[in-house]
Specification:
By secondary structure, the protein is mainly alpha-helical. The protein is about 45% helix and about 5% strand. It has a domain of about 25 residues. Helix 1 runs antiparallel to helix 2. The longest helix is centred in the first third of the chain and has 16 residues.
Length: about 70
């Protein structure tokens, strides 16, 4: 998964820049978001590689609990 690799490389670079440690929850969340949102299909027909309709997920930010 190319997008994940790009994210992970940049994430590690930024963590090193700020001397911060890698957070497994961040990496796991990024992978989940990429898996759910990346769909291979034809934008002109609106169909995926199996001929099914492409479904777009809608995401909203949840309130932060502190």
């Amino acid at each position: 998964m190319h997008m994940y690799r790009l994210f992970y490389q940049e994430y590690l670079r930024q963590m090193g820049k700020y001397q911060a440690s890698e957070k497994k929850k961040v990496v796991k969340s990024a992978l989940t978001i990429l898996k759910v949102n990346l769909v291979q299909g034809d934008a002109l027909t609106g169909k995926n590689k199996n001929g099914d309709d492409i479904i777009f997920s809608e995401w909203t930010l949840l309130p932060l609990k502190r």
